[in-house]
Amino acid sequence: MATRTHIDTWYKKEDYWAIIIALGLIVVSTTAFLGGATKLLPAMAINVPGWSGDFGKIVEYFSKNLVGVAYLFGFFAVVFTGAGRVLGYKTGNYLSSFSALFLLSIIVTVLGSNKFFKEWQLETPLLALLVGMIISNTVKLPQWFQAGLRTEFYVKTGIVLMGATLPFTVIMQAGPLAIMQATIVAVVTFATIYFAATRLFGLDQRFGATLAAGGSICGVSASIAIGGACRAEKEHVSVSISMVIIWAVAMIFLLPTMAKSLGLAPGPAGAWIGTSEFADAAGFAAAEAMGDERAVKTFTLMKVVGRDMFVGIWALLVAFLSVTRWENKTAAEASRVSFKEIWQRFPKFIIGFFAASIFTTFVIAYLDPKIGASFTKEVIGPVKSLRGWTFTWTFLCIGLTTRLKDLTSFGWKPLAAFAIGVLINVPLGYVLSNVLFVDYWLGIK
């Protein structure tokens, strides 16, 4: 019966649809390339050129690429709306909302390509976040617009697309080191926040575990997963998510600024961001702000390959503690609950990330070097562009759903406990990325 239930409900999960959409795009594009049809994907790869005072350059670009913009919108509108219908979103509201979000992303991308904003380090991701926050905190958004603000859906799709641009050989080389660094950071940060919350401020143990997971593993997803594993109160999960959002948004600005002021190389800087950021979407924004693809690669290796993988392990450990220590149940009961949690709580989109990386790595290895170079240019290059658009929608959604007034209603104790974790996490991440393992991160190209 349990198997039947799982079969009936897997398609109700965003993770699976993110994999289907992103991996499907990669496979179909690769098949088309091998069959000689190479025009559609490059046409969708809208890359707005840099400009300063001459807006006519932008008008000319969009005039020449109007069909490509239509392809870009049409493809994602169809796949996201179709998936949303299965997931239970209201089709009309979602399509209208995504259309508005897409138009806003075009405006933000044009602004982010301007020389003035670039000089102020306001790259498109940061600008999208700021614009979203300004709108959400000054204008009451209509109810129908909420339907398309699917932050997790967009970032998961983008992460799977990211896998196609990151060779699996690099992942295998970085895996042990990234996991080692992630282990150190996860254990130290989790323990710091948990003991600060429970011992210093007297918060409930389940609340402390949920806060600690959000600050040490993968942000919002970890807060939800670990909160469910230990049966924390819904209010505790909500507060933990609020903490993650507050600090994740702050770190989008602080980490790149500190990295640049310290003169850090892109590789170690990206690894530091991957070690010390609290959410995938915010981390990508911070890594993108470094202005170098190497920072994005090392961030991904550190955060996605390293820290995000811990959510299953942490769900197991916390579920065991919850039913044996906090709920006074037997070890046998704990074992039954905890092993069930591993697969239920594991972020499935990570599997898609690895699958995309393995797929494109084998395709490039199979092809003649000259054809492989063409494949990289005509398939992998456009995939990077599409990945960028999914992240822009992600950052807009974060801003549009972040209301500063709501984030101040939870009291000072959770904020203080999380802040103590930050004070330990950020210096520790710097030492690991820029001192102990700096030679490795410098070698990532």
From TrEMBL:
It comes from the Bacteria. Keywords: Cell membrane, Membrane, Transmembrane, Transmembrane helix. It is found in: Cell membrane. The chain crosses the membrane at residues 16-37, 66-88, 94-112, 124-141, 153-171, 178-197, 209-230, 237-259, 309-326, 346-366, 416-442. One of its GO terms (cellular component) is plasma membrane. It holds the Pfam family Cons_hypoth698. It is a multi-pass membrane protein. Its main location: membrane. Belongs to the UPF0324 family. This is Conserved hypothetical integral membrane protein.
